[in-house]
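Structure first, sequence second, as always.
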């Protein structure tokens, strides 16, 4: 396919969309809403951050009402130097030929390990600059600080600001846990930098996976900003079901956000458009349990039981035979 048909359509072209179709999608949604590379910062589960070390604050006390959106992990000079050393020695994922040869790759968005390699102090004057922040434990400005920004409305996920990286996932876990307050961090998503054509779904799609300005056009799979095989298959199923229901004059489905597919579709269609980054399925997307369940295995079982019950009720209301 080199163009989008003027008929009921599901676009599921994958992360390496061919140039003609890529241009057709850009013409439909606007060049500013089509991206060619992921530069994704790691994502941390909020409850795994040690708040006896980390603290909530905005720089210079600005936006006090938004202070909860940022968590700060302060570093001493010794901790900073040890972190930089580990970063420079960590193993990275080799770039593919087409990524190295494309001038758009890394454009305006350097991996943290490349920033550190340029100058030992580049991180302290870049994404880890401590200006405008005071460590409440010492009453002084830290030597460096790692900021985490709230990533979802529920406040269960935080991304590490400016920490796009090409380190291998095992290395990310080892090195990032050197950051004070993240020693026991649980990562909902590791940082990535790779070729990936995807649209700004929050600006262009409804939770039904319909294109906002065209009712008979649906998007599915990785081009929507969903990561992972199962998540991509799930969005293909939902887009196909909704395309068929529209042709039959039936109401379209928006799945409960307590189900993983519902939560994933809700995230990619409701995240902040200006900061949108692809997302894989993870428990941090689900609404918190009430009351909270502390045991990890029991919490997973509780999420599953709630999802199955809510999905069964949803399908019964939609008069679908189970």
């Amino acid at each position: 396919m080199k163009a989008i048909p003027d008929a009921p359509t599901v676009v599921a072209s994958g992360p390496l969309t061919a140039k003609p179709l890529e241009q057709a999608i850009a013409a439909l949604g606007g060049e500013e809403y089509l991206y060619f590379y992921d530069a994704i910062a790691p994502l941390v589960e909020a409850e795994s951050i040690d708040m006896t070390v980390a603290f909530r604050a905005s720089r210079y006390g600005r936006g006090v009402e938004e202070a909860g959106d940022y968590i700060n992990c302060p570093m001493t000079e010794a901790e900073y130097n040890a972190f930089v050393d580990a970063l420079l020695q960590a193993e990275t994922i080799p770039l593919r030929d087409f990524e190295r040869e494309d001038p758009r790759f890394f454009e305006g968005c350097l991996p943290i390990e490349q920033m550190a390699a340029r100058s030992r102090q580049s991180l302290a004057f870049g994404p880890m600059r401590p200006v405008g922040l005071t460590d409440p434990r010492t009453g002084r400005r830290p030597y460096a600080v790692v900021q985490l920004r709230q990533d979802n409305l529920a406040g269960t996920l935080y991304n590490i600001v400016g920490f796009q990286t090409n380190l291998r996932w095992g290395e990310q876990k080892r090195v990032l846990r050197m950051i004070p307050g993240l020693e026991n961090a649980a990562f909902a998503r590791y940082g990535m930098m790779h070729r990936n054509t995807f649209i700004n779904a929050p600006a262009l799609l409804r939770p039904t996976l319909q294109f906002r300005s065209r009712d008979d056009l649906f998007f599915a799979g990785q081009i929507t900003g969903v990561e992972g095989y199962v998540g991509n298959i799930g969005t293909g199923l939902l887009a196909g079901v909704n395309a068929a229901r529209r042709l039959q004059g039936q109401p379209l489905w928006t799945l409960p956000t307590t189900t993983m597919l519902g939560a994933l579709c809700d995230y990619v269609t409701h995240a902040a458009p200006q900061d949108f980054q692809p997302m894989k399925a993870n428990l941090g997307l689900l609404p918190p349990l009430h009351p909270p369940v502390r045991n990890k295995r029991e919490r997973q079982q509780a999420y599953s039981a709630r999802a199955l019950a809510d999905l069964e009720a949803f399908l019964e209301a939609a008069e679908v035979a189970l």
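Margin note: DSSP finds nine helices and 13 strands in the chain.
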